Amino acid sequence: MAVPGSKSVTARALFLAAAADGATVLRRPLVSDDTEGFAEALTALGYGVEREPEAWTVHGRPQGPAHPQADVYCRDAATTARFLPALAAAGTGTYRFDASAQMRRRPVGPLGDALRALGVDLTYEDADGHLPLTVRAGGIKGGTVDLDASLSSQFLTALLLAGPLMAEGLRIRVTGIVSVPYVEITLAMMRRFGVEVIREADGFTVPPGGYTATDYPIEPDASTASYFFAAAALTGRTATVPGLGADALQGDLAFVDVLRRMGAEVQVGADATTVTGTGRLSGLTVNMRDISDTMPTLAAIAPFADGPVRIEDVYNTRVKECDRLEACAQNLRRQGIDVATGRDWIEIRPGTPVPAEIACHGDHRIAMSFSVAALRTPGTTLDDPGCVKKTFPGFHGFFASVREQWGV
Ligand SMILES: O=C(O)C1=C[C@@H](OP(=O)(O)O)[C@@H](O)[C@H](O)C1
Ligand SMILES: C=C(OP(=O)(O)O)C(=O)O
Questions:
Q1: pTM for the full model?
Q2: Where's the active site on this chain (predicted)?
Q3: Is 152 in the pocket of ligand 1 (CB under 6 A)?
Q4: In the prediction, which pLDDT does 77 show?
Q5: Do 186 and 247 share a structural domain?
């Protein structure tokens, strides 16, 4: 099944293309609220972006945004809200970033602190460490900066991506980190645009010199694929996602290892991944710090396992589109399931969910995860089905066609 392109790869490719010397073509980008918002934010800053359905062309400006002043709306997207202030800060002008109420609640403080430490004039309008914020940019000389990325790796990605645009490059000492595989995506993609980051024991050194434009094919989204892999494991069917194989950049493909431990049959080939449900779904304890976007996928199907499912080390899921630990617990309880949560974990006991209305909290992953679980709980409804637009506007139609094909 052809799942849409990766959100994380599309956002990085847009940043890198905007910063590069020359024109870059992104092939099969994700077309969704997050990535369309990212592209529109680039346009607001004065970058040339042309969007055809299968290819987006970005005209790079190594010197920074064309407009000396801009108001940038980041919608619900943390990639936009965290990556683009770093891009703008390396240019020259006054740039204000705002976002939806949901994104305004999410933290950007550690990134703001690091940019300030590099000499950027950055001010918050309302709450410290939250959008709206304004950057009065006059280029960044670079140097050494400390960063705590234990709430979000996106702070580190933003600085890494902006590093080559700084006159002297950038050394980042990392004092805390989550979602490490996303940093690997960043480093691999920077290499594709001509920049080799040096790894050090305590962080990274990014050389100055800028990026070179390229032709960039976007791989399918591994977090989105998790819904179809989970659905196969839950119903004894087979889901194959082409374009996501052993060479995939995205760490979230490791969700299939969780399904394998639970009893599903998994094959990761050179250019495709296949999951087949076996009728067995075992309970387990799993650390999801590296792949926490797939925590709701697992939590939603967990009641169908033959023993408790305990998901650990996922504190930062509390600062995503919603508090995902509590949202999962709330919805599972509505379905009559016994759940416990702690600061950074959730434990779900086996049970037979009863139909309920799922409270999505405007979170695409809650909506898609509980749609998967609904395969075995007819009568489940969502209070906000439209919130899937953040990463997969066509999810419900696509999922219905998969169900029809599988006869479930
Ligand atoms: O860099 C990225 O593209 C992302 C990093 C992760 O965020 P955190 O680092 O905040 O966990 C992930 O949850 C998000 O969906 C996308
Ligand atoms: C956490 C997510 O998004 P964002 O990029 O806004 O952090 C997500 O897509 O699950």
A1: 0.99
A2: 293
A3: yes
A4: 99
A5: no
